[in-house]
TrEMBL record:
Transmembrane segments: none annotated. It comes from Glaciimonas immobilis. This is Pilus assembly protein CpaE. It comes from the Bacteria. InterPro entries: P-loop_NTPase (IPR027417), ParA/MinD_ATPase (IPR050625). One of its GO terms (molecular function) is ATP binding. GO terms for biological process: negative regulation of cell division. GO terms for cellular component: cytoplasmic side of plasma membrane; cytosol.
Length: 433
């Protein structure tokens, strides 16, 4: 059964494909489409492109009729290169109409080159985005096409959860929590499946994007140099085989993707390509845990948190962390009505420090998800042994709270357990001995 797509059902996880070599156009369209989804850029011969596009199951395909060969060259009307580019677009349009007649196709080009628009119309594409016009016009065209689009119903796509940890400032423990969460979740998945072979059962990925760089990889004793920037550069080749062979993996089976050694390489990573990478990775893992503790690019943080299923803001009770938390909340903006994915985690908690976890949550208007007890000494000691805390003290209160966070991810309406009253006081005394 087929049904029209409702615009309120289109999310940042929807897929759009642009068939073009022009990176400048891809960047422009990526921003224009980010309201509705993730843009994938593809360019190759028609025989290669056709099955690749069909396999991605996009909501919409954009075909380049601008005549550009690349962003660096200008259109030379009627040149051999221009004619060949238009011919490829026409050939691909016919092939897609034959292979996927219900798939919406939109032409892109410039009214400064009307021959491209005419070629698109003759190929049967009645919708046209003028890349030289304001982006609002692109919004109108895309919205009109999507409102009429027909897709098979129901559409079932496997997607892992994306959990993003945003540390209020460097040093509040986001990387430590991310590493423990990833490893314990991977153990939970393996125990549930009965498969103990990490070589074939990596179901959890840690996006080790916090600063200082590489802490997550260090905590999980992971080697490898295939970093986030390189993963973005190889986005078109990133299939399940490459994911499970080229990407670094911890002894416990967690796949780890860290920041590049040279952080300047991140400047080449566009926001829409980063989101496209996350979208692709979600098809291969049950959960992606993104550590953004200390990451300073505000626009990058906003884009990643916008695409996340869960956003956990991590702070401790120090004045510096609370001031930084206020700035972070301001950067992320107001919480949309009805949204519950943004929640607070208070780390290194000790009632003697003054402001309670509930008071912090109320002060910033955030639901209190979990309270992690002060365990600096024990965490340092286990890290110095090359181990995570649950490997040396599986019954520690910190470990039990992380286990509760995993329960929350598996069953969202089940709140992580928090010790109360005299029981919490007694357990604290016992754990300090």
């Amino acid at each position: 059964m087929n049904a029209p797509i409702a615009l309120n059902e289109i999310t940042t996880l929807s897929r759009f494909v642009l068939c073009s070599e022009n990176n400048q156009q891809a960047e422009w369209l990526g921003h224009a489409l980010e309201k509705w989804g993730t843009l994938w850029q593809e360019h190759s011969d028609v025989a290669t492109l056709l099955p690749r596009i069909i396999d991605r199951k996009p909501l919409l395909v954009l075909l380049d009729f601008s005549g550009f060969g690349s962003a660096e060259r200008s259109v030379i009307p009627h040149s051999d290169e221009c004619i060949a580019a238009i011919a490829r677009a026409v050939e691909l349009a016919h092939a897609l109409k034959s292979a996927a007649p219900d798939l919406p196709l939109v032409a892109i080009g410039s009214m400064a080159f009307p021959e491209g628009a005419i070629a698109a119309w003759r190929a049967g594409l009645s919708d046209f985005v003028d890349i030289s016009a304001p982006s609002e016009e692109a919004h109108e065209v895309i919205q009109r096409v999507l409102s009429k689009a027909i897709v098979p119903s129901p559409v079932v796509l496997k997607r892992g959860q994306l959990v993003t940890l945003v540390g209020a400032r460097p040093g509040v423990g986001a990387s430590t929590l991310s590493a423990h969460l990833a490893d314990l979740f991977q153990r939970r998945v393996q125990n549930r499946s009965g498969d103990k072979s990490a070589a074939i059962s990596s179901r959890v990925a840690l996006l080790d994007l916090g600063l200082p760089a590489g802490d997550g990889k260090l905590y999980l004793t992971t080697n490898g140099n295939f970093d986030f920037a390189e993963a973005v550069r190889n986005l078109r080749r990133l299939d399940e085989t490459l994911v499970h062979t080229a990407l670094s993996r911890s002894p416990g089976g967690v796949t780890v993707i860290s920041l590049p050694f040279n952080l300047s390489e991140m400047r080449t990573v566009s926001h829409h390509d980063a989101l496209a990478l996350l979208d692709q990775l979600r098809t291969y893992f049950d959960v992606l845990i993104a550590d953004l503790g200390g990451f300073s690019n505000q626009e990058f943080i906003t884009n990643i948190t916008g695409a996340s299923d869960h956003v956990w803001l991590l702070t401790d009770q120090s004045v510096g962390a609370l001031v930084s938390l206020a700035d972070t909340v301001k950067v992320l903006g107001e919480v949309p009505a009805g949204e519950r994915k943004r929640q607070l985690v208070v780390n290194r908690y000790d009632e003697r420090f003054g402001m309670s976890a509930q008071q912090i949550a109320e002060r910033f208007g955030l639901p209190l998800l979990a309270v992690l007890p002060e365990r600096t000494r024990k965490l340092f000691a286990s890290a110095n042994l090359g181990k995570l805390l649950h490997e040396v003290a599986p019954q520690d209160g910190y470990v039990r709270t992380v286990e509760g966070l995993i329960d929350h991810l598996i069953t969202p309406h089940a709140a992580p357990p928090r010790r109360q009253g005299i029981k919490r006081w007694i357990m604290t005394l016992l754990q300090r001995k």
